[in-house]
Amino acid sequence: MSNIIRIATRKSPLAMWQAEHVSALLTDLHPGLEIQIVGMTTKGDKILDAPLAKVGGKGLFVKELEQGMLEDVADIAVHSMKDVPVDFPEGLHLAVIMDREDPRDAFVSNRFDDLDSLPRGACVGTSSLRRQCQLADRRPDLRIEPLRGNVNTRLAKLDAGEYDAIILAAAGLMRLGFESRIRGRISPEDSLPAIGQGAIGIECRRADPRTNDLIAPLHHRDTADRVLAERAMNARLHGGCQVPIAGHALIEGDRLVLKGLVGTPDGSRILRAESDGPREDWEAIGTRVADALLAQGAGEILSALQEP
Ligand SMILES: NCc1[nH]cc(CCC(=O)O)c1CC(=O)O
């Protein structure tokens, strides 16, 4: 056992790519280490017709992987940080946050160059309340239609003519070799990215020093400080479910700057806040941005959305 690391992952092409990526980095770091990839189907992969916000939110994609580590059928789980809930089950922790890919949203279309070129009333696919809210604010005339499924499925639906354009994370497209499908990257001013977007995290058992030591070199401090600030904001704002919240941090020298946003799905209200401070104060910065949003009424917006 001592020379093997078992990676729990979802079986979607993006999740598999990310697991293989971590596998390749670990075998480079530790020659002789053997990696086994344990593919799992999560509840979130099975329920494809309902909006995620309605069926229980993001945790649906990680619970089975966490169970695998607790039951010792896997040693680590590789996640898109965007999909990782704020809290971890007893005994597990987020050991590593890896170097971030482009965190921006991407505009993907076969006919149009960017948001501004879309004709009045054009149909745009996204199931993310965060993207929907910012899109509706900028272009209230657009028809925004739900779009679920993995990245490959979403591209296929665009190609089948179901939408004039779709919005996806640039990171997922780049990882899967679809960079050429990106017509434009949407600036954070126009679409503030999701908390953790573009970053990969590795979760493992706390009481497993061997595994923690083996993966530690994959930790990327700049990305970690940024993503932890974004997550601290999220923790203060609510907890779990899928809601129109965006958070994006940058490092400038030894300072960390965090922008946050909460809005209504129809874009009729959008609250924004920003704060900065020494990078090691990521938690306080995240909390400050959340408090500034709450002072503007974010609590009412979020609780209205979470009512059954
Ligand atoms: N919600 C699914 C998901 N989780 C992570 C990514 C993209 C990769 C990343 O953010 O690291 C995607 C697809 C998308 O939003 O287009």
TrEMBL record:
It comes from Thiocapsa rosea. Belongs to the HMBS family. Residues 226-294 form the Porphobilinogen deaminase C-terminal domain. The lineage of its organism: Bacteria, Pseudomonadati, Pseudomonadota, Gammaproteobacteria, Chromatiales. The gene is hemC. The modification S-(dipyrrolylmethanemethyl)cysteine is found at residue 241. This is Porphobilinogen deaminase. Keywords: Porphyrin biosynthesis, Transferase. Tetrapolymerization of the monopyrrole PBG into the hydroxymethylbilane pre-uroporphyrinogen in several discrete steps. One of its GO terms (cellular component) is cytoplasm.
